[in-house]
Amino acid sequence: MKRELLLVASLAAAGVPAVQAQGFTPERTVDFLVHTGPGAGSDLFARGVAGVLEKNKLVPQRLQIVNKTGGGGLVAMSFLGEKAGETHMVAFFTSVWYVNPLIRKEAKVTMKELTPVARLILEPSVLTVRADSPWKTAKDFVEDAKKNPAKYKQGGGSISGRDNNTRLVIQKATGAQWQFISFPSGGERVAALLGGHTDLYIMEPAEALEQIRAGKIRVIASLMENRLPAFPDASTLKEQGINVPVIPQPRGMVGPPNMPANVKAYWEGVLGKMVKSKDWQEYLKKDLLDDGFLVGADLVKFTESYTNQMREILKEGGVKVLK
Amino acid sequence: MEMLAGLMQGFAVALEPMNLFWCFVGVFFGTVVGILPGLGPSATVALLLPLTAQMNPTAGLIMMSGIYYGAKYGGSTTSILLNVPGESASVVTCIDGFEMAKRGRAGPALGIAAISSFVAGTVGVLLLMLIAPPVAEFALRFGPPEYFALMVLGLSMVVLLAGKSLIKALLAMFIGLWLATIGVDLFTDNARFTFDRVELVDGVHFVVVAIGTFAIGEVLANLTHKDGGQMFEVPKGLRNLMPNWQDIKDSRFAFLNGSLVGFFIGVLPGAGSTIASFVSYGIEKAVSRHPEKFGTGAVEGVAAPEAANNSETGGALVPLLTLGIPGSATTAILLVALIMWGMRPGPMLIQDHPTIFWGLVASMYIGNVMLLILNLPLVPLFAQVLRLPAYVLYPVILGVSIIGVYSVDERLFDVWMVGGFGLLGYLMRRLDYPAAPLILGLVLGDFMERALRQSLMMSAGDLSIIYTRPMAVTMLFLAVAILLTPMFRRANAWRLKAAEQEI
Question: Which of B169, B236, B199 shows the shortest CA–CA distance to B408?
């Protein structure tokens, strides 16, 4: 609500006529801004979206992926933040777009100043261990970790990311304790697990499937509300008696500050059509992703509640929260 | 037998006219990209990614890999001619390459770079073909303590990079180590020395420091000389523009050393060709019969790092193809391409798609031959650049440097920084501080700190983890041995004598 008021106010301030509710169609190449280098999560996702849009001819112009890496998303965020009112650039957000502004002094903008357009997916994840390790379920691991505090190790990225947040909530709920070791790249994290230098790792389903097929790893829990179709035997944490909030990993589209209302409406319409297309459903199925389409007031509510949830978890984990 | 059949099948695939064509396109673009400083292979492969979506996977992979290893060939060109490292892996090549150019031996330097690239590139593919799966398993055993020991070993090379004064070299290295700490700390998520600037959150880009201290420092230092005019002599006649038999003979061991070091460091996820090039240079100098010549235009000093940086390509493909783990920026993009073509990269890739694997291996043999044929005739041509008078050449170096730095992230901030590091490079030159140890500290510092902290997290703070694992201990022992060398009187005398000859 407040955000919409802000938007209206800023539109008025920018002298945008209120009648600009007429249609908008891109007239030139649209930039799809992503905060990761090619090959990392956000980049892959943006390419996936662009692929489906192009295949279904939903956007009449070329879509171009622009990688602005650095600062764990801050560089891309501040780049987008400087493009207030820009009509031919959108970006793809993920959880770091919510988390980073909370903890980084260098962050100039937050998701509130930007214009979230739509949440598109929730990225599922599974808890994995090496195939030769003794644990069959997350409960086994937790029990063992309770008996041997600080003995076991979980590999992951930065401590404000989802991996460590999941560890924090499980530790808090069960009293178990284990270490978290950061590795800068996904490749190094998987290598550390397979090489026996870490014991636990949160993996995306598509990657896990291949490692399972090769007999390298085992999935010990689904980290979602439900079991994942690809891993029917991996029960959820709740089923295993570990009652922790599910931390969703959202991905979606966000526009620059003061994005004109008709441009926002355009993308909401296009994406609304896209998520119904067969290609999109196939894309979700192939990459084992969950549909999480959300626009309008629901998205505003999500932004609010997700920011609050992250803030709480970070505080619990001892991370200095600034905002 | 199975391998031979696979390879034959691979050549059948790679020799298809279209695949040959794409292989050529790849290595050609790779060479061009390699020559331009700043724009690296990973950025180029990323740019071409949407175009390859329509291609057949084998052809696409052949072309993209061609860019990857082709760029390694071109990377040495600006290092040798202009003292501007084209790629991070070519910084070490500047040390002796540019010295050779100053002495009118730019042609032989470029030639030896191309030849060692070819030899090592081929050895890299050969090793990829022969021992990929066992080596991948070995690489997995390399945990944080082993990485830490490897980085310590790397840092001990400072002794070998030092000129007259070991103290000055150590100081330069510590500045490098400090620069490496700038940015957000991965473990605590705290920002260090960023002064609330977004530009510094990821630290200082390595290329900025390297181009600043090497290229711009060099230009500034030369401005203070008044002689002007022609700076370099370029001998006439094709024979003098190519490496002679003696050069190749001198580089024999460097080819082998670089090929092996490059491949095995390339296999380790995250380590990369920059480290490989430093380590191979260090080894080359350590075992050389005339170490005093290093830093004054020793041909082995060009051959070793160039070899290492090319055979790294074969190594880096090992974890990608056998484990589905990308070990470097470029292989991460190749992974995307594989996903885009509907493949699932992982430990089963070679079994699932043998044609692609063997086609790629065969195409890399062919591509390396193409690159040699493409690059050698360019050598005399490029060497002519140095005929330019100083008043043209130095502005060219400045321009190339600034464009190179800007093209990394397209930020003006980096251009200001490169100016700052240029001044630092100038001061260091005037005060006789070597620049290479600074770069060494910067490259290894971040990695070393990370590995140490990861190790200590693994052992819950117990330092013994570092000296109780056999591989780590071996490397630490080697590092100590290298570091202690100058302490022995005789060795020290030798070093001083060597340094005197350098003046």
Answer: B199
